[in-house]
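agent: user wants the structure for CarD-like/TRCF RNAP-interacting domain-containing protein from Candidatus Gemmiger excrementipullorum. delegating to structure tool.
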Amino acid sequence: MFQVGDAVSYGANGVCTIEEKTTVRLTGRPCECFILRPVYDHSMKICVPCQSQVLLDRMHPLPTRQELLDLLREPAPEHEPDREARKELYRRTLQSGDRHALLRMLRDLYAERCHRHAQGKQLSGFEDSALREAQTILHSEFAYAWGITPQEVPDLIARELGRAAEA
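agent: tool returned. relaying tokens verbatim.
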């Protein structure tokens, strides 16, 4: 179980610190909750009720630097050609919080964006939104693991993907 002071990944909010475990009133009843603060957005606080397994399941321990590198070095995924199937896959991936699936999705969307830009086209609104949400989650995890800002992560990923291609 998680403890006060732990850093966790929480849904689309990315890396958060557990600030406290306290009792608050929700729907008129006392409820024990974890209070999370996103590491890269100090203006927000998140209350996660301890009795809500659905919300607790969104909290994940952070990966190590090596685990993230291993994920980056996996072969690129196959692109799902069916638009509706791809949309459903992206939706499920974002809900799951599974960083392995998120990174595969992110790599697929990066490749698709490059492919479409070469044709003078853009990603669909849904794909662009899915890309930004996946970036928020993964970039915060990479930034936290390397001690850099989320804005520096794309260059880090590009370097590491370049090293993987050279190997």
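agent: one observation worth passing along. The first helix runs from residue 53 to 56.
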